[in-house]
Specification:
11-stranded mixed beta sheet; 14 helices; 15 strands
């Protein structure tokens, strides 16, 4: 696969801006109710949750025990430990859920630290009779070495600071390219076969790049492009005979049409952000705690887990739940929309004007909250909310092409089949968001055409590459 130029230089250190509000979620529903608008976080209601004990202080290092060691190892997950025992030939009986954390600490030192602490947070809860938690994490500080392990139930020795995190089946993998599809595939096969369940969620942790892909490995100088993710997931589905229920992204910009297309054949639902975040990684402690608590009270449904995942994105400015089962219908409508955009007699300048008015991302108000406001500008500011874009086309007084407007409207009319729910933050220029972005540049696309062409199947089935070429270059 090709290497993305500036993708590896856009590392934004995490900045903690405090706790965000949460909306109450329920897992009593059996069907997912679609919605057509985001819920501003300022209007969300507080949820009663089991309180984290006050003794879990910010700088308290958890005690970690790997495999069946009896002595305490006061080291972080990033440090070396014992390798695993032989895998049992007969897997255990399936639990309700298996959650697999694929955490790329090879992005940069800040991401390495955040993901390590996030997984340690999950370790304070650990697996139980209903849920398996397992992880693979790499560390740039250890020259790209990765470990994978089962997160067992911790040994309780008083309050949170006395919890001893237990990592079972601990394996040292050595220097590992986390930007390789084979690495992702092998981890998922390991986790799904060794810890079977009725339902699976995979949480991808690292930097995100929308249509460029995600999880850049700055040691291997590689990344997971969308088609590589699609290929890995298809192999996993073929070998296990089971699709993933949820793929969630602890990574910026990943709720886009290009990524959703890549997942559609192997994943039922997607949770992730259209926009970048300006804080830390997800709260894995809250994710594990709420899943464990709710599973102990009643059946933990797929909608319920998605709601928990949405709430765990505490520092993301914009996040959504998407139903990928209906992506084939959206793909056909996108193809029709692309054809109308390419063949319209409307002057390109008028179409570009509509594009510019649509909700775009990498907002300055968000970048200004980061350590480097000049990072994460291109191509992300040309990612535009798909429904905002179609509405600008449909409602434009200057566009007279009724067939084009009809094609735009058809996407808006079916959107309730894709978008389930989402949260956004007021005051950051994100008022017209609907859950999924698409690359829609009005200039400068020539610098990214080669990268965009890597979304081969998406472009073949939707024709969107020709839209990018027609309206996104200087000569258009």
């Amino acid at each position: 696969m090709s290497i993305i130029g500036n993708f590896f230089q856009n590392s934004v250190p995490g900045i903690d801006f405090g706790q965000s509000k949460k909306k109450a979620a329920t897992d009593k529903q059996t069907d997912i109710e679609p919605s057509d608008q985001f819920i501003p976080r300022d209007n969300q209601t507080e949820e009663k949750a089991v309180k984290r004990e006050e003794t879990k202080e910010k700088n308290t290092e958890p005690v970690i025990r790997k495999d069946n060691q009896t002595e305490k190892n006061t080291v972080s997950v990033a440090d070396k430990g014992n390798t695993s025992e032989e895998v049992s030939s007969s897997p255990p009986a399936p639990k309700e859920w298996t959650v697999l954390f694929f955490a790329n600490g090879n992005c940069d030192p800040t991401m390495d630290y955040e993901l390590t602490r996030a997984i340690e947070g999950a370790g304070l809860i650990g697996s139980d009779k209903n849920i398996n938690f397992a992880a693979q994490i790499s560390h740039i500080k250890n020259d790209g070495a990765a470990n994978r392990f089962y997160i067992d139930k911790p040994e309780i020795k008083g309050k949170h600071r006395d919890r001893e995190i237990k990592l079972k089946d601990y394996e040292e993998l050595g220097k590992t390219n986390m930007g390789d599809g084979e690495t992702l595939k092998n981890f998922l096969l390991w986790g799904m076969k060794k810890y079977p369940a009725k339902h699976y969620m995979v949480l991808m942790g690292g930097h995100g790049g929308a249509f460029l892909g995600c999880l850049p490995d700055n040691i291997a100088k590689d990344h997971l492009d969308n088609e590589e993710i699609a290929g890995a997931l298809k192999e996993v589905t073929r070998e296990t005979g089971q699709k993933l229920d949820i793929m969630a992204f602890d990574a910026c910009f990943m709720a886009c049409a290009e990524t959703a297309f890549a997942l559609k054949d192997s994943v039922d639902y997607m949770v992730g952000p259209e926009e970048m975040n300006y804080g830390n990684s997800w709260n894995y402690w809250a994710l594990a705690e709420k899943m464990t608590y709710r599973a102990s009270q009643s059946e933990l449904t797929v909608p319920g887990v998605m709601d928990i995942a949405l709430e765990a994105q505490e520092h993301f400015t914009l996040k959504a739940e998407l139903n990928l089962k209906n992506m084939p219908e959206l793909v056909q409508l996108l193809k029709n929309f692309s054809e109308k955009l390419i063949n319209t007699q409307t002057p390109p300048g008028i179409i570009k004007k509509a594009f510019r008015k649509a909700q775009h991302f990498s907002q300055g108000a968000i970048r200004n909250q980061t350590a480097d406001p000049n990072a994460h500008v291109k191509p992300y500011e040309d990612m535009r909310d798909l429904i905002s874009l179609t509405r600008q086309i449909k409602n434009s007084q200057e566009i007279k092409d009724e067939e084009l407007k009809k094609a735009a409207n058809s996407i808006e009319q079916m959107w309730g089949k894709i978008f389930i729910k989402g949260f956004t933050t007021d005051g950051l220029g994100l008022d017209d968001c609907h859950g999924m972005a698409i690359y829609a540049p009005v200039k400068g696309a020539e610098y990214y055409i080669k990268d965009y062409q890597e979304n081969t199947l998406f472009n073949k089935e939707t024709g969107w590459l020709e839209v990018v070429k027609k309206y996104g270059t200087e000569n258009s």
